[in-house]
Amino acid sequence: MSEATEIKNLARLIDAIARRCWRGIPSLLGKAPMTTRQQLKEALFSRYGEERVKVRSGLRKLEGHEFIIEDLMIDNADPILGAVRWKEIVEAVRWYHSSHRMEWTIFTSLVAQTETGRAKWGNVGAARRLAQRYDISLSDVYDIARKTPLNIAKAVSMGAAQMTFNDVPECF
Questions:
Q1: CA-CA distances (angstroms) from residue 32 to 2, 5, 56, 114, 148?
Q2: pTM score of the predicted model
């Protein structure tokens, strides 16, 4: 598995934990216990409703809900979690939370409102409300929500949570 694949798979894992695991966001922040293997398995294979659907890949609609068919299987999650300590993920999430507060808030707000079914109130969707609140475009909101788990995975890979500007060597 290449490093780029590992980063993408870790990003998918972080996203699945945030969106679908019991106390996922608090767990990523280290404020709740680590997600169990069973919770992770359920998160990776969760579907809306009880219907079974044959889908090849990508984004599909089912009873008005969007869902993504995960290509990350639980067997692929084990090597990732074996290569990276949970503490490193928590540290990277905390670092991202404190260093990129607006992006973290947009990501967690959109996840919370979407996953709890509160994404649309009064003909205004959660993403549009966040765009208005932060004075950014709607596409920026979606980009931030899509890229936040990837950015955290990259931070884990680089050890960014352990680095400070004082660690950067002088160039002269």
A1: 31, 28, 35, 21, 20
A2: 0.74
